Amino acid sequence: MNSPLLEVRGLQKHFIQRKGFLTPRTTIIRAVEDISLTIQPGEAMGLVGESGCGKSTAARAMLRLITPTAGSVRFKGEDVLAARGPALKAMRRRMQIVFQDPYSSLNPRQTVGSALMEPMAVHNIATGAAARRRAAALLDEVGLPANALERYPHEFSGGQRQRIGIARALSVEPELIVADEPVSALDVSVQAQVLLLLRELRVRRGLAFLFVSHDLSVVRWFCDSVAVMYLGRIVEQGPVAEVLRAPLHPYANMLRDASPEPDPSRRGILPRIIGEIPSAAAPPSGCAFHPRCGAGLAECARIVPPLAPLSGGRAVACHLYNPISGKPLSTTQT
Amino acid sequence: MTPIRRAIRRATSNPTTTAGAIITLAIVAAALLAPLLAPYDPTEQDIMARLQGPSAEFLLGTDQFGRDILSRLMWGARISLTVSLGAIAVAIVIGGVIGMVSGYIGGTFDLIVMQAMDVLLSFPSLILGLIVVALLGPDLVNLVIAISLTAIAPFARIARAPTLVLKERAFVEAGHALGYSHSRIIFRHILPNILSELLVMGSLWMATAVRTEASLSFIGLGVKPPTPTWGGMTRDGFENILDAPWLAIFPGVAILLLVLGLNMVGDGLRDATDPKLRNE
How many domains does chain A have? Predict the structure, then answer.
């Protein structure tokens, strides 16, 4: 087995919120509680979960766009969180991000050409005519004409802007792209085009992806593996086909059931979404999912289940599969 | 079409803005062309022709030393414009950098810097200018320093507010992800997005600077005589207000016209760059 591209261990990000002036009340928002994942070179991993579960925060902390509270992030063995100065700059070049909102991801006062050539200049990749040629080639690669170089972002549609954002990320020739809900702000017809482009780029350039999404069908189509997040923790992880075909964790199961099924013969189970995601400021005790879960073992409310490996590269954090006592306890419905 | 060009087009379609621009440009032209257009030397005294009313020979009359008022106004416009333009340019640069850096860094640093700016802002601009000129002595450079000091705090505030919004935008985050330095993000990505707001406020504050310069000259803290200044001429005219009212009226009208023109241009530019009126 080759060495992993990205190794995240025990990643945690808490936001501290102070309210009030004379007697400030401090609230800790536990956006990311404990995330560990490994991405191999060329692998596309989906990070899924409801909005508010901390998936975007986790992705940003991995790229060090925000500073994690705890944990370690290694890119090809190098410590991302300890890197400084030129080492950090060199590391940034190797991991890029594609944003959700194509309208805020481009500087409105910068031409497309300048947006593509600036990273090349900063990283001493190319300048002048060589940079222009590269920028034109990047535009061609994402399916935009070369005359877009002189134009401003407001002259483009959402899908075209997203292509420009992808071209900008590619301008520094990264090995890993974090795609933070890259198509969820786009029209459905445009979504498919941008997804096809991403998959084409992935194959051609051998890129690894961390694909943050709430759309399971997109993740099933794009990714090799998937990590399901719930309230700052990964609850289930494994190859995308197996996890989404037969989810083990009750939450993953619920998410899968809520996702539209394209094959009518396999429909029939009504979505069983119970309740809403609790606040990250006051997470439930024990397993964060226990108030919405039907399992209701005795330890669910008391003990946080660890993410325990199973066969076939899967892992699940649930007392049903890793009972403390060695065997499942009697189920007492809550 | 760039946003700036669209703003200019919208501004020039407004008659008030156009009128303001014509007034302002006429005064600027008179100041620039003073050596060619002024009928007399502004400091040349003609004691035989003192305190004359407007006539064909002296279009706006003469003062108590027989100096031509029109020529003095044209040369005086140079002082007004130089001082106010210089002061506002300095204030935009210093205030803009303070505001952007403070907003960008945020936290306690921002809090302290902005409190300091509020202290500066709490002085009426004339009082602040008066203190500085009184301390440094009245000359052209000190006037620029004094007046720019009165305008730094407002420009810092104007630069800070949009910086707070822009630094949360994804393109700034993309800059971090691409390894851009903080100064590159501030000056190449945030600055171009707030420049138009700074310049619009600059044209409005130019009018205030003209007024402050005139007021300081009026109370004798402007550029020293015999150099003509509009504020100084108004003050001199005041001594003969009963015999020769035009001496005070003409420089007063000149100040009024320049302030009015700049305000009309500033208002028009502000409306033209208002995002609510922008049709994107």
Answer: 1
